[in-house]
Amino acid sequence: MSQFINHIPFIVKSALSFLILFFISVLIHEFAHIIFALVLNVSIKSFTLFDPLYAAPAVVTESSQNILFVKIIGYSGGLISGALYLAILIIKRRWFSHSIYRWILGCSLLTIGLWELSIGIIEGSFHSIYVNDASSSSGISYFVAYIAAISGIALYSFTMPPPTQSRTGKRRAAQSPRIVRPSLLTKPDNNAG
């Protein structure tokens, strides 16, 4: 029991880090919608940061040109935030293997990145299903996102095994011990022994 109590600060730090990464991904997701709407010159009727029920940002869809732009705007949120998280993970992959905490951050990035990518695809391709499912965490769009997130955890666990810790708390080298072979250029010491 005392070992568990000793790990509580680490568990809290890891959980808070995950929640912060998730919150940042939501901000990136929603602001990507807004930026794409502004770039494509689609008027925004209304916007609420955490209410996908009414399709944040809700846009005016009166012309056929706007329908295409609205699809692009729908894809943009999840694809931009998911791709950004995956890019960070790929670029800094060695950084995430130095400690258990960094490994958890890397796993969180992949999990949230795949969640966002799946939400982006659903939001762009099946927007009406996405909006209808937004009020229920058991809807089909969230089910697909849950599968993507669980796949992220499994993929990260298999491709980046967590670093091992020694009793002193320092990371042990993951490589095998170096075998020293006598050089062919030196003469053996016959005087020894």
Notes on the protein architecture:
By secondary structure, the protein is mainly α. It is built from five helices and two strands. The chain has a two-stranded antiparallel sheet. The chain is elongated and about 85 Å long. The N and C termini lie far apart (56 Å). The model is unreliable at 52-56 and 171-177 (pLDDT under 50).
Mean pLDDT, nearest integer?
A: 77
Spell out the helices and strands N to C.
HEEHHHH
Classify the helix fraction into a percent range: 55-70%
Figure out the total of helices: 5
Structural class: mainly alpha
Oligomer: single chain
Identify the strand order in the major beta sheet. Answer: 1-2
Strand tally, please?
2
The CA-CA distance between the termini, in Å, is 56 Å
- Biggest sheet descriptor: 2 strands, antiparallel
Q: Describe the global form.
A: elongated
Detail the poorly predicted runs. Answer: 52-56, 171-177
How much of the sequence lies in strands comes to: under 5%
Cα radius of gyration in angstroms: 24 Å
| Total number of distinct structural domains | 1
Structure at a glance:
With 193 residues, the chain is mainly α. The protein is 62% helix and 3% strand.
Layout of helices and strands:
Layout: H1 2-39, E1 44-46, E2 58-59, H2 64-91, H3 100-125, H4 127-133, H5 140-159
Antiparallel strand pairs: 1-2
Helix pairs in contact: 1-2, 1-3, 2-3, 3-4, 3-5
Note the main attributes of this structure:
193 residues, mainly alpha, two-stranded antiparallel ribbon, 5 helices, 2 strands, 3% strand
